[in-house]
TrEMBL record, chain A:
One of its GO terms (cellular component) is membrane. It comes from Breoghania corrubedonensis. GO terms for molecular function: 4 iron, 4 sulfur cluster binding; lyase activity; metal ion binding; oxidoreductase activity, acting on NAD(P)H. Residues 33-62, 64-95 form the 4Fe-4S ferredoxin-type domain. Keywords: 4Fe-4S, Iron, Iron-sulfur, Lyase, Metal-binding, Repeat, Ubiquinone. PROSITE patterns: 4FE4S_FER_1, 4FE4S_FER_2. The lineage of its organism: Bacteria, Pseudomonadati, Pseudomonadota, Alphaproteobacteria, Hyphomicrobiales. This is Formate hydrogenlyase subunit 6/NADH:ubiquinone oxidoreductase subunit I.
Automatic annotation (TrEMBL), chain B:
The lineage of its organism: Bacteria, Pseudomonadati, Pseudomonadota, Alphaproteobacteria, Hyphomicrobiales. It is a multi-pass membrane protein. This is NADH-quinone oxidoreductase subunit H. Signal peptide: none annotated. Its main location: membrane. GO terms for molecular function: quinone binding. Pfam families: NADHdh (PF00146). InterPro entries: ComplexI_Subunit1 (IPR052561), NADH_UbQ_OxRdtase_su1/FPO (IPR001694), NADH_UbQ_OxRdtase_su1_CS (IPR018086). Keywords: Membrane, Quinone, Transmembrane, Transmembrane helix. It comes from the Bacteria. The chain crosses the membrane at residues 6-27, 71-95, 101-122, 143-162, 190-209, 241-260, 266-287, 299-317. GO terms for cellular component: plasma membrane. It is found in: Membrane.
TrEMBL record, chain C:
It comes from Breoghania corrubedonensis. PANTHER family: FORMATE HYDROGENLYASE SUBUNIT 7-RELATED, HYDROGENASE-4 COMPONENT I. InterPro entries: Complex_I_20kDa-like, NADH_UbQ_OxRdtase-like_20kDa. Coiled coil: none annotated. Residues 25-136 form the NADH:ubiquinone oxidoreductase-like 20kDa subunit domain. GO terms for molecular function: 4 iron, 4 sulfur cluster binding; metal ion binding. It comes from the Bacteria. Its cofactor is [4Fe-4S] cluster. Keywords: 4Fe-4S, Cell membrane, Iron, Iron-sulfur, Membrane, Metal-binding. This is Ni,Fe-hydrogenase III small subunit. Belongs to the complex I 20 kDa subunit family.
Length: 167, 318, 145
């Protein structure tokens, strides 16, 4: 007679159904949804591209700079890219509203551009990417970071070597 | 002439045809809604069965290349027509008395066999293996439940007939009239075993859990109606809606016709049929698991047969 | 607005759903079953009903990256579904191949073989996302009726 008490309990309590299509659904704060990319803080190390198990992330060199593309339709939301990102430029939002019509299939892309620059020191090609600050001691000041951003990779290495020697 | 018009109206409008169809679909809606509530869900709107029918009218009917097309498409029509006729045969106490020309209890029992046969024909003509399984199961189940229902009918007929001085009365009108003047059979201890047998019979006839073995959706994917789509599937939905009204109405006429007349009679009858649907169909189908076909077969040859036979014996001896 | 259009508006409130597993890992299938069966998501209140037979279906949910072995069977089952029908690809596998992309054993993306109308990416998508996808499929279905 267990089911009878269950019936009575369900009738007294009322439906347990979420009002979802007619009201927003509850989403956990750390829900692993759509990938978001911030070109400002990316250092263009391309670790995420290598860590991505499905090949959803792709970097490409263009005359305008380095482009970043993450195709949500092949991303499996594993979070490896965010885990391996040294600067937190790539992270997962709690947005899961991904259903779309077939016509929009190839528009489901997170796009970012790290602009190309001309090195302010040597005039060579460079990228306006965040400097790799992981092992640098003492930490860079904002002015030094700004200066580093305007240099090409070779000049950056030179700048940091000089800075170490100064220290 | 007026008799013919009355008969045609009773088959097409009230209580057969339009009325029975609307009632049957509404009952199905109530069933689904109450089932959802008992399971802690919101459930579909009460009009969902009507919406389903409208939807099915827009779909295409596909006929398997290996199926026998006239039989495949004709079977549901025969089922619907038989149930329309049967709905006109069941009296509503104080409201509707079928024309004697239409037939009596025995004709209703014959007509109630036809949907089962239609399912068998549909299953076998669709040339689908699932349909064939459904066909054989439907046949076995029908063999099992037809015996008890005949004995239930015999018990009721004997009870009325012997009280009125002849052997047996198979006229549903007289059965209802007898219960209106005397007490209803629901309160008659001699009839209780027969009532029990009827309560076991109608889930099997309506094809609901625990006796939905031929149509078992999770096993044989709705068996006989597996290959049907579009309007033809809609006809099966119509048939089962009508059948629910006929079987439940028959149960009310046999065991508990109310002593009212006019509009209260209609309301009382509707209330009775709704209660029977919720208690006898919804609650049962949610709380039971499906039997195996051999279990159902031996079950029907044990309990309902025993109960109805006990009733017949008690009436004959008393 | 004609009577026919009114009836069509009524008809779209009864989408019956059929699932095809085209070599899925069962993750998406579990989410679909969850959507169907758990009182919390109750799709029946939207008129949806999961059906066992492809002949009764209106909306087809396909999951899985379409493995080489399953393609003929999936194709055959798909053809059994009467028109008008709408196809929804559930999970990233049918849409692009996801984790199985460029494997020799799968034929993803599935839209080379089936006319897909709505995509619901996710690995697996959450039940609410599937309901959202079905809602979009109903819009497509309304135009096809």
């Amino acid at each position: 007679m267990n089911f009878l008490s269950l019936f009575v309990r369900n009738l007294v309590h009322g439906p347990y159904t979420d009002p979802f299509p007619f009201a927003p659904a509850p989403t956990a704060a750390r829900f692993r949804g759509k990938v978001a990319f911030d070109p400002e803080t990316c250092e263009a190390c391309r670790k995420c591209e290598r860590a991505c198990p499905t090949g959803a992330i792709r970097f490409e060199r263009t005359p305008e700079g380095m482009t970043f593309d993450c195709w949500h339709d092949t991303c499996v939301f594993c979070g490896n890219c965010a885990f391996h990102c040294p600067t937190g430029a790539i992270h997962q939002t709690a947005d899961w509203h991904l259903a779309h019509l077939q016509a929009d299939k190839y528009l489901q892309v997170e796009h970012g551009l790290i602009p190309a620059i001309v090195c302010s020191s040597c005039g060579g090609k460079g990228l306006d990417s965040a400097p790799a600050i992981g092992k640098i001691k003492p930490p860079l000041s904002p002015e030094e970071t700004q200066e580093l951003r305007s240099l090409c990779p070779k000049c950056r290495a030179k700048y940091l070597k000089d800075r170490r020697q100064r220290a | 002439m007026s008799t013919q018009v009355a008969v045609i109206l009773s088959v097409l409008l009230f209580p057969g045809g339009l009325f029975a169809l609307t009632l049957g679909l509404a009952l199905k809606g109530v069933d689904r809604r109450v089932a959802a509530r008992l399971q802690g869900r919101v459930g579909p709107p009460l009009t969902q069965p009507f919406i389903d029918l409208v939807k099915l009218a827009f779909k295409r009917t596909m006929v398997p290349t290996t199926a026998c097309e006239p039989v495949f498409l004709g079977a549901p029509l025969v089922g619907v027509v038989s149930m329309l006729a049967a709905a006109a045969l069941v009296p509503i106490s104080g409201l509707y008395t079928p024309e004697p020309i239409l037939g009596n209890l025995l004709v209703v029992l014959y007509l109630l066999v036809i949907p089962g046969i239609v399912l068998m024909v549909a299953g076998s003509s669709s040339s689908s293996p699932y349909g064939a399984i459904g066909f054989s199961r439907e046949m076995v189940l029908m063999l099992a439940y037809e015996g008890p229902i005949v004995l239930v009918a015999a018990a009721v007929a004997l009870r009325v007939g012997m009280a009125e001085g002849h052997v047996a009365t198979f006229s549903l009108v007289e059965i209802v009239a007898y219960q209106r003047t005397h007490s209803i059979f629901l309160l008659d201890p001699v009839m209780w075993p027969a009532l029990g047998a009827f309560c076991l019979f109608f889930p099997a006839n309506l094809g609901i859990v625990p006796f939905d073995i031929p149509e078992a959706e999770t096993e044989v994917l709705e068996g006989p109606v597996l290959e049907y789509s579009g309007p033809a599937l809609g006809l099966f939905k119509v048939m089962s809606a009508l059948k629910a009204v006929v079987v439940l109405g028959l149960g009310i006429a046999l065991f508990a016709p109310l002593g009212l007349s006019g509009a209260p009679a209609l309301l009382g009858w509707l209330a009775e049929i709704a209660v029977l649907m919720v208690l006898g169909v919804t609650a049962v189908r949610l709380s039971a698991g499906r039997m195996r076909i051999d279990q159902a077969f031996s079950f029907f040859f044990k309990w309902p047969l025993l109960l109805s036979a006990a009733s017949v014996a008690a009436i004959a001896l008393v | 607005m004609t009577i026919l259009q009114k009836f069509k508006d009524i008809a779209v409130r009864s989408p019956w759903i059929y699932r095809i597993n085209a070599g899925s890992c069962n993750g998406c299938d579990v989410e679909m079953a969850t959507t169907a069966l758990i009182p919390r998501y109750d799709v029946e209140r939207l008129g949806c009903q999961y059906c066992g037979s492809p002949r009764h279906a209106d909306i087809v949910l396909i999951s899985g990256p379409l493995t080489r072995h399953v393609v003929d069977a999936a194709r055959r089952v798909f053809d059994e579904i009467p028109d008008p029908k709408v196809t929804v690809a559930v999970g990233v596998c049918p849409i692009s191949g996801g984790i199985f992309r460029e494997s020799y054993a799968v034929l993803a993306p599935i839209d080379d073989y089936f006319p897909i109308d709505v995509n619901v990416p996710g690995c697996p998508p959450r039940p609410q996302a599937i309901i959202e996808g079905i809602a979009q499929a109903i819009q497509v279905w309304r135009q096809r009726l």
